Structures are given as C-alpha cells and as structure tokens.
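[step 3/7] inverse_fold.run input=structure_tokens len=304
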C-alpha cells in the first residue's frame, strides 16, 4: 500500500509491503538509483548508508514489540531521502512511521514547518520519532525486570529461570538491532553534510545524543538483569545445598538407630537388656540418647 502527502513541492511517501511494480514506478518518478530500486524490493540484513548524487539511501532496523511472540523483534525500514522527497519502504507494520505520517497529514502547522525546509528536516524528525518511541519499549523491559526482582526474593527462584532467560534474549535482540545505528550515524556525519549542508550535523548530533541515552539505559537493564540472574542462581544453589544438608543429616541420624535395632535383634544366646523388664523402653532410650548426642555434636560443629 502506498500512502502519500504532497505539499509545497515536497513529497512524503510511505510504501508498506509494496509490489515490485510499485517500487519500480516510484523509482522512475523519484529518479532512484537502479541498485537502490532493487534493494527496496527485498529485505536487507544489515543497516547501511549509501550516498548518490540526488538522494541518500538508508537501511535501519528497529526493535519493536511483537504482541504475538511477546518479545521485541527487529523490523526493517528503508529510507530514500532527497532534497524534495522522503520515501519509506517496509514490509512489516512500523508504528513510528505510521504515526509520523499521520501527524504530518493531520497537522497543517507541522507539515508547513517540516516540508518547507526539505528532506533534511523531515528525516531528522522521523528518525527522532523512531528513537523516542523506543523509550516506551525500554519502560516495558524495565517493568518486567521490576516484577522479576520482586519474585526473586519471594521464593519463586525455579519459576524465574525461564522468565529471566527470555528477557535476557529480548534485551540481546534489542541491543543487536540498535548497535549498528552507531555506524550509520557516523557514516552520515561524513556523507550527510555534503548532501544537505553543514547544518545537517546539528540534526545528527541530536540523534546521536538520544541514541546514546537509549544505549546507556539498555546497558543498565542488561547489567541489572545479569545481577538478578546471578542472585537467583545463588538462591537456588543455596536452597539445594540446604536440602542436601538436611537429607544428609537425616541419613546420619537414622544410621545409628538402624545399627542399634539390628544389634539387639541378633539371635544370640546372651543378649544384654533384651528380656529384662522394660527392655523395649531401655532400647528406645538408648536410641534417643544416641540421637541427642549426635545432634549436640552437630550443633557444636555448627553443621546445623
């Protein structure tokens, strides 16, 4: 589907899941380089920046939340920007792109302010929208971490192993989508001013600042989750050791009782105590004294 806004000689075009014929038609109209036209027809694995005489070509990947899989998934958006147009091409729904397009369509003042300046300002505002939308995604991750932190100390250690592992993967995917943006921004600092002029560097500095804030927050979330993982693992190990310790103590305590019972059960001619008055209670008493002595010894050695 092709959505388009034309205003004061500038065109904002959003192509969601376009057909090859639609891409070819747009490429001819906007005089897009043939290699770029071919790339727009398919997904691109790595982010990139290519500079041509009449336009810049950017490939970005954004970590957006996938409701179906309940995790963040990298989604690609291709951007072709010239002096008097900006084209976005994507094969998955990308909310920030749709929201930006709708804002420009509905807000005349915004459209006037952006379109009158040209491609540099529109690219900056759209890219800024991309990054600002990620703070909501980071808030979503932070809430998950907070819930995990509460449960770690409430006796749910084993249940949290899977939750922590899934969130670690989620943060890894988030980071893997964003880290290449640093290279893209650095490349644009070299090629962008040649195409849009030196003022474009101010836009890039603004984007770079927001990007670094996002990466700092992401790194903090990663460190916090790693600490929670280690804490959870330590608690599981401690509880397992306590269980093993308790079972070992029980085994040590029952062994002498079994031995005493076996000794008095030997079918011998002379068996002390057995056959006397209250012999049962005497044997039980010997067992209790033995257990009590062992418990006192364990307590003295601080094994209990």
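[step 3/7] decode complete -> sequence:
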């Amino acid at each position: 589907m092709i959505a388009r806004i034309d205003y004061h000689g500038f065109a904002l075009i959003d192509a969601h899941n376009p057909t090859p014929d639609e891409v070819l038609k747009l490429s001819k109209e906007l005089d897009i380089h043939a290699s770029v036209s071919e790339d727009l027809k398919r997904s691109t694995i790595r982010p990139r920046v290519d500079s041509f005489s009449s336009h810049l070509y950017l490939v970005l990947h954004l970590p957006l939340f996938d409701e179906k899989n309940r995790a963040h998934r990298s989604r690609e958006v291709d951007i072709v920007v010239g002096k008097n147009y900006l084209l976005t091409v994507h094969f998955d729904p990308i909310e920030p792109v749709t929201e930006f397009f709708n804002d420009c369509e509905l807000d005349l003042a915004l459209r006037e302010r952006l379109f009158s300046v040209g491609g540099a300002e529109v690219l900056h505002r759209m890219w800024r929208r991309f990054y600002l939308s990620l703070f909501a995604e980071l808030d979503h991750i932070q809430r998950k971490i907070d819930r995990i932190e509460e449960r770690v100390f409430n006796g749910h250690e084993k249940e949290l192993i899977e939750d922590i592992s899934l969130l670690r993967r989620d943060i890894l995917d988030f980071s893997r989508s964003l880290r290449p943006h640093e290279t893209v921004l650095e490349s644009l600092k070299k090629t962008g001013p040649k195409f849009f002029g030196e003022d474009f560097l101010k836009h890039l500095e603004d984007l770079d600042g927001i990007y670094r804030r996002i990466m700092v927050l992401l790194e903090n979330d990663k460190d916090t989750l790693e600490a929670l993982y280690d804490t959870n693992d330590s608690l599981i190990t401690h509880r397992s050791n306590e269980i093993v310790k308790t079972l070992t103590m029980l085994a040590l305590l029952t062994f002498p009782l079994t031995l005493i019972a076996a000794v008095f059960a030997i079918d011998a001619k002379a068996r002390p105590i057995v056959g006397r008055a209250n012999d049962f209670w005497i044997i039980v008493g010997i067992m209790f004294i033995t257990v009590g002595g062992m418990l006192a010894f364990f307590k003295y050695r601080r094994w209990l």
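[step 4/7] annotate
The chain has a mean pLDDT of 85.
Strands lie at 2-7, 10-16, 48-51, 56-66, 71-81, 85-90.
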